[in-house]
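Handout, page 2. Input:
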Amino acid sequence: MAGRRLGRLSPASSILFLCDMQERFRHSVAFFPQIVSVAARILQGCRELEVPAVVTEQHPRVLGPTVPELGAHDLPKHPKTCLSMVVPAVEAELRARPHLTAALLCGIETQACILHTALDLLERGLDVHVVVDACSSRSQVDRLVALGRLRQSGAFLTTSESLLLLLVQDAAHPRFRQVLQLIKEPAPDSGLLPLLGGLGPPGGL
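Output:
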């Protein structure tokens, strides 16, 4: 077991990435309301646990602002044209937090900006946790293949509830009750069940 990456999480060494959940994608990305709702739940949990968050917007003059229901109105929005979220301002934020070991990744699209961001973060030595019920694409085939590609590249695929429980770790945590309230109701269906068989071994998600 020595040296094996297990994907454990600590709030003190994690950062949340919220990718391009913008108005123009509202009617083109599959399950958009559901994945935004799940990402908003994760953002609330990260606020409770004092996990910092990064928000990007792809070409915002064309694709519009971040949707209000994400609940990220108070967070800086980093504009970008490249597919990766790791633009210079975000890179500077990562350098300013050398203690980070894990990135938590939500948003769109799975085969584009999520994949490119994950690869950049993996190359920088971070564990990447892709929240599958908070990521989507216009095409469910692209979503499925991208999730498989992410796992092949070394990212951990996880769900929103599993992620929050990995962060909080213990019912004795002073914010456990607040996190429990967020996951009391199951996350909305984001169309994953039909895709699970296509992910193949090991063990689906």
